[in-house]
Write a structure and sequence with these properties.
Layout: E1 7-12, H1 17-28, E2 33-40, E3 48-51, E4 54-57, E5 59-60, E6 71-74, H2 78-90, E7 94-97, H3 113-116, E8 126-128, H4 132-148, E9 150-159, H5 166-180, H6 212-224, E10 231-238, E11 245-253, H7 259-268, E12 272-274, H8 284-287, E13 293-301, E14 307-314, H9 318-334
Parallel strand pairs: 1-2, 1-6, 2-5, 6-7, 7-8, 9-10, 12-13
Antiparallel strand pairs: 3-4, 9-11, 11-14, 13-14
Helix pairs in contact: 1-9, 4-6, 4-9
Amino acid sequence: MSGIKGLRVAVVGATGVVGREMIAVLASRRFPVADLLPLASERSAGEHVEWGGADVLVEALDDDAFEGIDLALFSAGASVSERYAPLAVKAGAVVVDNTSAFRMLPEVPLVVPEINAHALVGHRGIIANPNCSTIQMVLALAPLEAAAGVERVVVSTYQAASGAGRDAMDELRDQTIDLLNFREAKVKHFARRLAFDVIPQIDTFQPDGRTREERKMIDEPRKIMERPDLRVAVTCVRVPVFVGHCVSLNVELRGPLPLARALEVLRAAPGLVVADRPEDFPTAADAAGQDEVFIGRVRIDDSVPHGLDLWVVADNLRKGAATNAVQICEALLARDLLRVP
């Protein structure tokens, strides 16, 4: 991106675990930032974040924070985005939002750049970053859809504590320490104790018995892949891991796809790293700190006419959030779309 004029970039939620990762990814990918404006709540204002080898003061988010800003990355919760993202657009900034606030609005593109960067054309100032587990799921499904068509997918997730934020990670740490020292573990951020257990609930339950997280993983792939008829069954589970989401996919294809061909199309897809042998399966620890999505345990599922099973792993803070958001910014810049219509 050499030769591109530097941009004034704001990061809302700059002191949070994803906000800090966004700043790190902007730096590591050398996105052309002339000035960085880290923003946070009054409670976190006054802290510092590292940028360009220096400590930059975090300023308080308010209605006038976006004057002169070209690009604003949001990761401070849906209610914050709902209030302040329209103000950022009104001030002339393009918003890439990492919350669920705008994802399912028809006029807002929901983008994984390797799959549907074309959806950015005609944006109205706000672009939505998908749910973390959705991103790694659709990156695995998209090449299979192109090769043979996807009829139905059964999804089971194993999601790290960091998906619920810094306080949730701290709770897992504290619970682990307490239990190892024969003390009662305190529960605040999770539905149950997470340390040395798993919790089959992420977000709140809905009237149909699904959780909001599970609903996201049904609706979002349909929008991203432009497949409103895609059948998805999903169970989302929180596991006692700090970073790295794992997803088991049982995919029913529309037509035959030999295993060798399936591996070939997955290896050729951008953003994926595919294990050559079953015993080389990726784990959450392997994906932590990486920007790629890792795939292993690819095998034929003979319980359906055209079935394939996969194990998909990614760093939920990077490709599941910060990296995908910055890649959206890069795609906007490459297409000369980094402006409010």
